[in-house]
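Record pair follows.
FIRST:
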Amino acid sequence: MYQITNLWRHYLLFTHSLQNIKRAIFSFLFCLPTSLLALLLILLLAYNGFSVFSIYLPFPAKFQPEPANFSPEKSSGQMVTKWSYSSTRTRVSSSVMYAVKEKQPVILKAHLPLLQKSTSSLIPINTSLVSKPKRIHKRKSTVKILRLGAESRLFSTRIREFFERSSCKLRFFMTWISSTESFGDRELFVIESLFKSHPNACLVMVSNSLDSDQGSQILRPFLDEGFKVIAIKPDFNYIFKGTYAKLWFNKLRKGNVDPGEVSLGQNLSNLLRLALLYRFGGIYVDTDVILLKSFSKLRNVIGAQTIDVETRNWSRLNNAVLIFDKKHPLLFKFIEEFALTFNGNKWGYNGPYLVSRVVTRVSDRPGFNFSVLPPMAFYPVYWSRIGSLFRGPRNQVHSKWLHTKLDLIRRQSFAVHLWNKQSRKLKVQEGSIIDHIMADCCIFCNSSRSSLQIIE
């Protein structure tokens, strides 16, 4: 009993001591200045807020980027070290140019979860779900292109009958992958220029959209004038038959080829032009190439886009104009390169870069009979300077330059590539080089001048 009483006494003393401490603390606080007390309260609130709203962000593990490899030992489609030129300096400078133009920077990607709610911030977002709508859209576009191409089972019959009844002096091919609404006055003028310089030629427009009632109305003025033109949906199976293109196309249809970020239609156009010329022979031109004079004396040629200023050898070819015999071995190599090294994520890799790679590789080999024409033949103005052809004379000095350039183009060029991507929005000014070229190459001259909006 005494122990219990003693324990109770100690407990009362302890609680009394706590109360005294509490009173001392409150007395101390009440004695503090008001501003200091407010500061303590703000710090307390800040700490409380930080503890409530803090978010945990999981970061991916660190990794080292793989360096871009330009080893000379790589297979076709990458940097090429074999050149047909004798100059060692030429080989080095050209190799470096290809490496710089075709490489892509290494991009490090770190995916962080979206900051929506604190409860969900601890769960990393599945990145495959984020990019799913874009991939679905690409898949639908791919299926649409392939389905439309497969519908045209009469392609072989129609094109054979067209060539037989037309008695073509020359066979021209174009491809159009966009809608009929996008086929504008500039494209129509390109066709005018083709028939102005080749009135007895045949033109095949390989296109899904133009092979329609609306497309027939667009081409009607040329048919009414007696020119031979037809628009046909492509039958990929027939066009690609017997080439590496058929193997690549079958893999694409089965989903075993990544179409990449570059438009699949654009890459199919790159392949179609090669396969069409390989099967039928003839001339391919882009729809932004104005023809200035007859191509009848040209055979098995491709044009250089740029030249090395030191060696005067070509440094880049282009595929906007191609003239080749049926089943030419260089076309076969182009198609093979496309199928084996396809890359849908690099613009131009399956087009201008491709023909440049292959020509470099086969230049010293026997059996490939072809010519590379200088830039003035088809590409008299570099793409970044195409605007100079649309501007009228500003002063006497500029006017003299325009007439000198126009005279040079008229004498040395077979065609002028307009580089539509850079020039589509440019207006043709009165007195410009394009204004003079239009006057030289038009068939429906009054309508062409007004539709292309000549600025006076």
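SECOND:
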Amino acid sequence: MNCDINCPEVLSIHAKFVSIGQHVIKLYEIGARNFAGNKLSSIVLESSNLIGANFANADLQGANLDLADLSQCNLNSAKLRKASLCFATLRNTNLNGADLRNANLGGCDLSQASFNGANLRGANLSGANLKGASLVFANLSGADLRGACLDEADIRFADFQGADLRDISYVNAEISNTILAIAGSLNINY
């Protein structure tokens, strides 16, 4: 089935009867996977299973994606500013160039995810699993990474200025040319 949310007529008809979040879930259940470029700001998709969906260039600012499974999704250049993704699963997800400023990714499984060139300035990544993730040229300045796992992650050229790096682990991480302007004491496992 080749379903696509980019049909304005479908959106306008169904939006009268169900919330946009429920609408996206229903479309996903019947086979839709392409939500690219859509304005979905403040959408509620809490605890949803959206594995493999395409949200490239979508506006998801302020969205509630807590506990959602977004594994293998395409969120390339998506706008996720101030979105909440607490304890969500984003394994092998493409977040290259995404705007995640001040987003809440606390406790997320971000293993093998790609954040190359992403803006995570001020984001909460406390307790997140970033094992094997790629954060090349990512901006993590002012981010909270307390207790995060960056084992085997590629963080070359990433900016961690002013980030809270207490109790992080980065065993076998690629850290060349990483910007670490650190103030105060740290407990880092490597």
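COMMENT: Residues 20-29 form the longest helix (10 residues).
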